[in-house]
Write a structure and sequence with these properties.
399 residues; Rossmann fold; single chain; 2 domains; binds cytidine-5'-triphosphate; eight-stranded mixed beta sheet
């Protein structure tokens, strides 16, 4: 979250400027105060009015306010901001920043800013590869400016290659990571999260599944991203919206989830396994739809691999594993048994009621740590529960 952070957004002329209202929206939604400064040529791609509406502040372009004649103090703007991000940053502005030129409000503000500066370059393919541009970017990086690298893709010219401005979500997460509380041990860590149900196919149209929505796992992913973690999400069949800034691996069955998790786990610092994995799958898969024949029907089931147990029993000393458990009776006893048998660092015990559980937006959990710690939450939103779970893991696992 960027609650209360003061962000200056500089916009220069380039087709990617049309994405800036969305970026400003993301900043505002996360609680930041936003002041936009445009160059004159930026206004050929995005309107000052749109940016004023989304930032809830007048968009500044000139040294003097055209209506009131008041001076737009670039020094004050530079001192006000906690961060200055210039996006898109075209080659002209880039070159002027390198040489200390200040023929517009955006550049003078850059020269007087004391806060950290971020730029998101955006240019056409050959321009981006020009040695002059590469050297200018390197010079600014050496002076402490953070370069949010351009991305590959289709460019406005029709050429395909590097030069597209990084997406608004990437710009946002760069700032979010920058402001993430320094005491979090999740910052920079590679965390694998699983979420959702698994579906075990019976025939081409039928499966065995469960009611898991994946919401709790997604809330954890969002919170981990905001703490600066690099998240890989292995997601079973779920319709929840997935945060943009995680690496997504979609799977259907428990075996696919096992394969996906095993392939990435060696490079992870930790695993948080919220997925409701089906314990059993049909022994035989029917490649044609099963026809209705007899009055009774038996589907023989065989055990699926226990993903968490397999990975956790083989984890390295510096890796952690956290499981989730949903129990209906002897709840604490069963949860603690899983904590031990699956070699976990902690287990989160879910309860099921009409305010908690699979499809609900709220939850209540009890967390047990491997050193006999425990903590119980109230009934809260899954977002709030995610914050508590991660704060708890932060202190139990890392400190
Ligand atoms: N889990 C797993 N692979 C399975 C089953 C469960 O990785 N085949 C993980 C779940 O994601 C969860 C933890 O193990 O983090 C506990 O899952 P749960 O279903 O509560 O326990 P089970 O081990 O399946 O035992 P039971 O169903 O008998 O309670």
């Amino acid at each position: 979250m960027l609650t209360g952070k003061k962000i200056l957004v500089g916009v220069t002329g380039g087709i990617a400027a049309y994405k800036l209202p969305h970026f400003v929206r993301l900043l505002k939604k996360s609680g930041a105060q936003v002041q936009v400064i445009c160059t004159q040529s930026a206004l050929q791609f995005v309107t000052a009015e749109t940016l004023s509406v989304v930032s809830e502040n007048p968009t500044l372009v000139h040294f003097f306010d055209e209506k009131t004649g008041m001076w737009n103090h670039h020094v004050e703007l530079g001192l006000w901001a906690d961060a200055f991000i210039i996006a898109p940053c075209g080659s002209n502005t880039l070159a002027k920043m390198v040489h200390g030129e200040c023929d517009n409000l955006l550049l003078t503000t850059y020269l007087s800013a004391r806060c950290p500066v971020f730029i998101a370059p955006a240019m056409d393919l050959d321009m981006y590869q020009q040695p002059a541009v590469t050297e200018n970017l390197a010079t600014l990086a050496k002076r402490g400016v953070t370069i949010i690298d351009a991305e590959e893709g289709q460019l406005a010219s029709g050429l395909i290659g590097k030069g597209r401005m990084a997406e608004p979500e990437t710009l946002f997460s760069t700032l979010e990571n920058f402001f993430a509380p320094p005491n979090t041990h999740f910052k920079g860590k590679n965390i694998l999260v699983t979420a959702g149900p698994t579906f075990e196919a019976i025939d081409p149209v039928r499966f065995i599944g469960n009611q898991s929505s994946g919401k709790m796992g997604i809330s954890l992913v969002e919170q981990l991203i905001s703490l600066g973690a690099n998240v890989t999400l292995v997601l079973g069949p779920s319709h929840v919206d997935v945060p943009q800034n995680c690496k997504l691996m979609r799977v259907t069955s428990a075996q696919e989830m096992m394969d996906a998790c095993s392939s990435v786990f060696p490079n992870m610092d930790g695993l948080i396994m919220t997925a409701a994995v089906a314990d059993y799958k049909p022994k035989d898969y029917h490649s044609f739809k099963i026809k209705k024949n007899e009055d009774d029907m038996v589907i023989e089931l065989v055990k699926n691999p226990d993903i968490l147990k397999t990975l956790s029993l083989n984890k390295k000393e510096n890796q952690f594993c956290v499981g989730f458990a949903l129990e209906t009776n002897n709840i604490e006893e069963y949860a603690k048994k899983k904590l031990n048998e699956k070699n976990l660092d902690a287990i989160v015990l879910n309860t099921v009621s009409n305010q908690t559980g699979f499809q609900s937006n709220t939850n209540q959990v009890k967390i047990f740590g491997k050193n006999n710690q425990s903590l119980e939450t109230a009934i809260q939103s899954k977002e709030e529960i995610a914050v508590i779970i991660l704060e708890t893991l932060n202190s139990w696992i890392f400190e």
